[in-house]
Target: Erythromycin biosynthesis protein CIII-like C-terminal domain-containing protein
Amino acid sequence: MPPALAIAAQLAGRGHRVRFLGHEANRAAVGAAGFEHEAYATARPFSSRAPGSPLAQLAMFADRGMGRDLLDSLRRSPADLVVVDCLLFGAMEALRESATRYVVLEHLYDAYLRGPWLHGPLGLGMRARRLRPTRSLAGAAATLVATLPELDAGSRRSHAEGLDFVGPVVPPLGPRPEAPEPAVLISLSTYAFPGMTRRLQSLLDAAGDLDARVVATTGPVIDPSDLRPPTNTEVHRYVPHAEVMPRMSLVVGHGGHGTTMQALAHDLPVLVMPMHPFLDQPMVGASVAGAGAGAVVRRSATPAALAPVLAGLLAAGPHREAAARLGAAIRAMPGARNGADRIEELLRREPRAPGPGRPAARR
Model:
């Protein structure tokens, strides 16, 4: 949601009307950002709070109900362009088959999407449901990749025409204190991965002996009362990362692309504990570690094994210079602004496009 909302805000500020179609669970975030939200009428319900198996994720990504609802929405209220999430192949296929012009928004590494995702269990599951994910990606009028090219191995190989690295979409960066006290932010996923409470407790135990303030956020799926925080730790259900990261020295996460890019944008090294092997988290962690700006640990790591890794990343060292270098590169590529620029360029070239509820223009 954050990359799509940030690009939408840029477009709205330039006078465009932007509306969202999504799950009912998205309504609050979309409304808080000031946009219209229409809930799917027939698509499968979805909640990140319920532990989802790979089969449940497959059913959601391949849901043709999204495509039916999307085309129905466009018939009622046509749009000049549709921006579709890169994982919603049920919706993307409907756009391609109806010759509706669309842009794909990739909020992760392209190397992951076109590699392990398309060629792994989830991509194979798409094909088993008679979807054509590769064709749907290729059918987009443009593809916006909201990440840092040097971290995405996919940027180092040839791509189909239309792939555009716009840069990570991160919130505005607040001022950083001149001499902040040592502080660590520990924040795992808002999605209910199995065993996440146990993983978070291991991290808290490992951070208990650090000479640092520790801030831990549980998100909606972990009950704070199930945790035993050390004396140097404060636990919150939710704290906006944009508010706390300027005062942090280190970020610990599960390898979520958005949180990782936001941490690096603040020049912060990152410790990654991936929660799921099929998702992009291991690749995100490996890229950060490979750039020298952090480390990756197993989700089964014990507090005794985690403690020296945390202490090393909290200390001074070359990992801080590496994180600062990546941070400068991210700040030089304002993803929301660049994404809105590319969308406007496309609209200027073809201001109106055929699609449901709109006849093809005569030449």
About this structure: The domain at 2-168+334-349 is CATH 3.40.50.2000 (Rossmann fold). The chain is about 40% helix and 15% strand.
